[in-house]
Automatic annotation (TrEMBL):
Residue ranges, compositional bias (Basic and acidic residues): 7-18
Pfam families from the UniProt entry: SPP1_portal
Signal peptide annotation: none
InterPro entries hit by this protein: Portal_protein_SPP1_Gp6-like
Organism: Enterobacter agglomerans (Erwinia herbicola)
Protein name: Phage portal protein
Chain segments carrying region Disordered: 1-22
Length: 108
């Protein structure tokens, strides 16, 4: 250990580097990209200021894309289930019995 008591000595280069700012920026960017790629609304990012009507409207607009994706998935899932039921009841001839036929017609 060297000790120098001169006022011209600068020992800052010996300090451990602080990467908190860089790490915070990386986390913020990763979080933003996560919400963008998953197409989910980030409700933590919404400002709920004094004008609550405007914030309600902005929340509604942000949720609109998510609702569209959910309804699209629901339609695809329902269509797939209907095709599955048609295949199962068509192959096994279970639809000939009256109770199962009524249930199949109600579903399909």
């Amino acid at each position: 250990v060297l000790v120098n008591q001169s006022k011209d000595v600068d020992g800052k280069f010996l300090e451990r580097p602080n990467g908190d700012g860089t790490q915070e920026n990386l986390l913020n960017r990763l979080e933003e990209k996560l919400f963008l790629t998953s197409m989910v609304t980030n409700l933590n990012n919404i400002d709920s200021g004094a004008n609550s009507a405007a914030s309600d409207y902005s929340i509604e607009l942000r949720m609109q894309a998510m609702r569209g994706l959910a309804s699209n998935k629901e339609r695809k899932y329902t269509k797939a289930l209907r095709e599955l039921y048609r295949g199962v009841f068509g192959v096994t001839n279970l639809a000939k019995t009256s109770i199962i036929k009524k249930a199949a017609n109600a579903i399909l």
